[in-house]
């Protein structure tokens, strides 16, 4: 990984060291408990804020530490190696804070960003709908103008931190509806407890336990006029403005999970004896280890290449889709084969590789499925 290391400056290394200390001191002792209870780890997120890891991409003055997108990916990869759920929670929170930083009024930034940076407030973006996927132009949720603001109605699916967030960025279409996506806008909605007509039902998934997502219903939820983020019709730009960053960040989470599973498999192959020899001396296991390393190392280079490009030039759609595809598929491939190296032991509930395997699967679905990433890569390559 010398190429990656050579691209880092002292600021990147400081962020990586902070993430490493947070992972070792806070996440490692809590990871098993989060997995067992499936409860939202608010205390862990608060600690991440206290250690300066929630405001990494915010403007100076809001977060304790700021960095570029390469530094951010270093942090989430390290955290994901200990808990994919914590890393994905931070990812969802970060990409709810960024639109406020970019498009919010000074009053909105002052109200939300300090608390989001220090961990005392959690953010969520509600975009996806049951019949609209994540394409804002197809949204059915509506925002009707009132004398003093807007009334929101509709259904949202998924949304990292939905329901437990203190501020939700809800993407909805203004009524009367326009004939294109220009009526799509973003509204700042408080917590479920503080917004009449806002209900949330959490979904249970096979992995990422402790990561909260589910179905949100808004029935005439009133928001003041001052809770419009940006301008009417900017919703598509706001919602999709960080897509390259979000996809690359998910790739980094995949790399973190893959790295953790790879390390577990290598350690087991050296310690576990079969027929008087470590199983790592068997060629079948060596082939698995080599292929796992190929997938993990290749994905890591693609993720950090995309992250560095985002940091330097704002990003590239094909590179970010490639990073997301490679990171998520490496996570699935490496975790699956880490279980294979462990044999029956790896299939047991409660073993690290069993958890990594379940956590990895969601990465090929959220943020645009692997099939969508392939279509995007092909489209960009063929100039379609």
Automatic annotation (TrEMBL):
<dbReference type="Pfam" id="PF00441">
    <property type="entry name" value="Acyl-CoA_dh_1"/>
</dbReference>
<protein>
    <submittedName>
        <fullName>Acyl-CoA dehydrogenase family protein</fullName>
    </submittedName>
</protein>
<dbReference type="Pfam" id="PF02771">
    <property type="entry name" value="Acyl-CoA_dh_N"/>
</dbReference>
<feature type="domain" description="Acyl-CoA dehydrogenase/oxidase C-terminal">
    <location>
        <begin position="233"/>
        <end position="378"/>
    </location>
</feature>
<keyword id="KW-0274">FAD</keyword>
<dbReference type="GO" id="GO:0003995">
    <property type="term" value="F:acyl-CoA dehydrogenase activity"/>
</dbReference>
<feature type="domain" description="Acyl-CoA oxidase/dehydrogenase middle">
    <location>
        <begin position="124"/>
        <end position="220"/>
    </location>
</feature>
<dbReference type="InterPro" id="IPR037069">
    <property type="entry name" value="AcylCoA_DH/ox_N_sf"/>
</dbReference>
<dbReference type="InterPro" id="IPR009100">
    <property type="entry name" value="AcylCoA_DH/oxidase_NM_dom_sf"/>
</dbReference>
<dbReference type="InterPro" id="IPR006091">
    <property type="entry name" value="Acyl-CoA_Oxase/DH_mid-dom"/>
</dbReference>
<dbReference type="Pfam" id="PF02770">
    <property type="entry name" value="Acyl-CoA_dh_M"/>
</dbReference>
<dbReference type="InterPro" id="IPR013786">
    <property type="entry name" value="AcylCoA_DH/ox_N"/>
</dbReference>
<keyword id="KW-0285">Flavoprotein</keyword>
<dbReference type="GO" id="GO:0050660">
    <property type="term" value="F:flavin adenine dinucleotide binding"/>
</dbReference>
<feature type="domain" description="Acyl-CoA dehydrogenase/oxidase N-terminal">
    <location>
        <begin position="10"/>
        <end position="119"/>
    </location>
</feature>
<dbReference type="InterPro" id="IPR046373">
    <property type="entry name" value="Acyl-CoA_Oxase/DH_mid-dom_sf"/>
</dbReference>
<keyword id="KW-0560">Oxidoreductase</keyword>
<comment type="similarity">
    <text>Belongs to the acyl-CoA dehydrogenase family.</text>
</comment>
<dbReference type="InterPro" id="IPR009075">
    <property type="entry name" value="AcylCo_DH/oxidase_C"/>
</dbReference>
<dbReference type="InterPro" id="IPR036250">
    <property type="entry name" value="AcylCo_DH-like_C"/>
</dbReference>
């Amino acid at each position: 990984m010398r190429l990656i290391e050579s691209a880092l400056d002292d600021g990147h290394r400081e962020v990586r060291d902070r993430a490493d200390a947070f992972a070792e001191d806070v996440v490692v002792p809590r990871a098993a408990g989060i997995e067992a209870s499936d409860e939202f780890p608010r205390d862990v997120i608060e600690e991440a804020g206290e250690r300066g890891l929630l405001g990494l991409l915010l403007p100076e003055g809001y977060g304790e530490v700021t960095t570029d997108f390469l530094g951010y990916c270093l942090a989430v990869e390290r955290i994901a190696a200990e808990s994919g759920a914590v890393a994905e929670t931070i990812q969802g929170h970060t990409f709810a804070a960024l639109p406020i930083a970019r498009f919010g009024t000074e009053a909105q930034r002052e109200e939300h960003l300090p608390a989001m940076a220090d961990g005392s407030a959690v953010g969520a973006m509600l975009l996806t709908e049951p019949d609209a996927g994540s394409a804002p132009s197809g949204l059915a949720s509506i925002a009707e103008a009132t004398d003093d603001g807007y009334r929101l109605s509709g259904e949202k699916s998924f949304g990292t931190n939905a329901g437990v967030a203190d501020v939700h960025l809800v993407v909805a279409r203004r009524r009367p509806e326009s004939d294109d996506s220009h009526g799509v806008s973003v509204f700042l909605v408080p917590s479920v407890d503080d917004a009449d007509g806002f209900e949330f039902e959490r979904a249970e998934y096979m992995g990422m336990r402790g990561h909260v997502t589910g179905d949100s219903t808004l029935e005439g939820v009133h928001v003041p006029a001052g809770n419009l983020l940006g301008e009417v019709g900017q919703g598509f730009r706001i919602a999709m403005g960080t897509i390259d960053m979000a996809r690359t960040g998910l790739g980094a989470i995949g790399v973190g999970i893959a790295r953790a599973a790879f390390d577990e498999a290598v350690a087991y192959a050296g310690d576990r004896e079969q027929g008087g020899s470590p199983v790592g001396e068997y060629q079948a296991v060596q082939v698995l280890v080599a292929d796992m390393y190929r997938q993990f190392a290749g994905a890591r280079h693609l993720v950090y290449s995309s992250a560095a490009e985002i940091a330097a030039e704002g990003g590239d759609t094909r590179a970010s889709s490639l990073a997301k595809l490679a990171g998520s598929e490496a996570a699935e491939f490496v975790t699956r084969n880490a279980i294979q190296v462990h044999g029956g032991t790896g299939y047991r509930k409660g073993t690290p590789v069993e958890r990594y395997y379940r956590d990895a699967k969601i990465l090929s679905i959220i943020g645009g499925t692997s099939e969508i990433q392939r279509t995007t890569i092909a489209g960009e390559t063929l100039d379609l």
